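[Meeting: bench + compute handoff]

Bench side (C.D.) handed over the final construct sequence. Compute side (W.E.) agreed to return the predicted structure before the next meeting so the bench team could plan truncations. Sequence as handed over:
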Amino acid sequence: MAPAPIRVAEDAVEVESEPVAVKATHAPSRDQVADVIAAHQSAIAGCHTIQFSGKPSRAGSVTLLLSVRKDGSVERADLGDSSFDKGPFSRCLLDIARELHFAEADTELEIAWRFKFAAAKSTRGKTAALP
């Protein structure tokens, strides 16, 4: 069973993310990967907020591509399909991605994770889980 999409709101943006692919034989489950992503999703929403501060919030999506070593550290982080130009937002997202740490595995892990950004309903500057 695939994990439910993760949703958070940060200032003027709502972020929803979901796995595109998690490939490995003896590795963390999709739920375990989702837990790691969820723990950093507010920071990722913050990257979007910084990029578009003072501008109308820009909706779009980006796919994060990760190569993870057996010890759970990120070997490589790249952006796949993206509706955003390369710039501060992309650099911020990649900086966060390089610091992620997953459970140890018997093999290297390839992860593709899509983040969708949309203008948030009023959150009054607070991060909140959405239903």
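W.E. noted at the follow-up: The chain has a mean pLDDT of 79. C.D. will use this when planning the next construct.
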